[in-house]
Amino acid sequence: MFEYLGTALVGIDPGFDVLRYLTVRTIGGTVTALLISILMGPFFIRLLKSMQFEQHVRANGPESHHKKTGTPTMGGLLILSSLLISTLLWADLSNRYIWVVIFVTVSFALIGFLDDFLKIKYKSSDGLSSKQKLLLQLCFSFLPIAYLYFSAETIPETAFIVPFFKDLIVPMSPVLFISFGMLVLVGSSNAVNLTDGLDGLAILPSVLIAAALGIIAYSMGNQIIAEYLFLPHLELSGELIVFCGALIGSGIGFLWYNTYPAEVFMGDIGSLTLGAILGILAVILRHELVFAIMAGVFVIETLSVVIQVISFKTRGKRVFLMAPIHHHYELKGWPEPKIIVRFWIMTLVFILLALATLKFR
Question: Is 37:82 a contact under the CB 8 Å cutoff?
Fold first, then answer.
């Protein structure tokens, strides 16, 4: 909205042109989302409590988690509402990438809402079945990925970019692009969902990765920076930094209430959607492998579950005391805050390594 306002008012006073600056709108979007999250947080928490939207801890979870039963959940509504309001206010709504990420945000939020609602309704830690959840994720991931392929105007928009190589850009067929994009989107969504098991464990890594993807989006949207870093120039991608800024603001605002000991949990409506958002950003920017490095903590959490399941089904033995791996360290006696902060630090290291690949080509 403010971008349009700046365009309309620049004829009256050239000073209004500042509302069209990408940097100004990114800062505006970040601050707006942050203020909405922090100021509306207490109201959201009281509302969730009054509606009895409370967390139900799984029976076979760590003993220390039983005290969290009754904590308000579905706090992801706070993240997503502040994110969408800020995006609609500050982003250029004529940019098709913005509408792609908005579609993914809303559609995966619906999946998460349904999953959380069923848990609350039946007072159980079980919501949608794995098959139901996966089917919905595949349906809602196919549409935006297919749209990205068939609306592409340049080859780099649908090519596979290989890190560490300056000119290695491999064109992808429609089937390969859509299949791979859906894998990234669904995989990212579920990986963040698995990681969201401790207070603040998932939200800050998501915020940090969003910031890093925002830097890539801005770099690829700026022809000078893109040429310097040997990145494909995607003219429309720069606008995504406004969305990333809004995600950073909403995430940090939510962390104010989600930090240990949490006053509210994001629920599946938050974790499934955050993962999907990060996945679609990586697909749009054609940096899926770089994103996999950034999301190292999410990858490790997912692999720990896969390894645990395979080991138990094939050998009848568990590799970890409990999966995902953050529960393993809980059962080893690590305090929850120590696990959280160390995983945050690991995420920062992974992101720095990933960003280094932009220069080491």
Answer: yes
pLDDT at 30: 97
How far is 257 from 305, CA to CA, in rounded Å? Answer: 28
Calpha distance 151→183 (Å, rounded)? 20
How many residues would you count in the chain?
Answer: 361
pLDDT of residue 204: 96
Token pair 């709504």 is at which residue? 93
Q: What is the mean pLDDT of residues 243-271?
A: 94
* Cα angle value 352/184/254 (rounded, 5°): 60
CA distance 219 to 276: 22
Rounded to whole angstroms, the Cα distance separating 170 from 220 reads 17
Task: Judge contact between 294 and 205, C-beta under 8 A.
Answer: no
- Listed residue (192, 198, 209, 204) closest to 305, CA to CA: 192
CB-CB neighbours of 312 under 10 Å: 13
How sure is the predictor about 166, in pLDDT bands with cuts at 50, 70 and 90?
low
Count the neighbouring beta carbons within 10 Å of the beta carbon of residue 286: 25
Torsion of CA 117, 120, 121, 127, to 10 degrees: 60
Of 129, 138, 118, nearest in space to 181 by CA = 138
Distance separating the N- and C-terminal Cα atoms of the chain: 39
Contact indicator for 148, 181 with CB cutoff of 8 Å: yes
Smallest CA-to-CA distance from 152 within 181, 123, 127, 121 is with 181
Q: Pick the closest to residue 235 from 97, 328, 339, 33 (CA basis).
A: 97
Distance separating alpha carbons of residues 74 and 304, to the nearest angstrom: 26
pTM to 2 decimal places: 0.93
| Assigned token pair, 273 | 């959607």
Task: Give, as one character, the DSSP assignment of residue 162.
Answer: P
| Angstrom distance (rounded) from CA 51 to CA 72 | 9
Q: Within a 13 Å sphere around the CA of 307, how many CA atoms are in the beta-carbon half?
A: 14
Pairing of strands 169-171, 159-161: antiparallel
Q: Which candidate, 180, 182, 191, places its Cα nearest to that of 299?
A: 191
- Please give the DSSP secondary-structure letter assigned to residue 152: -
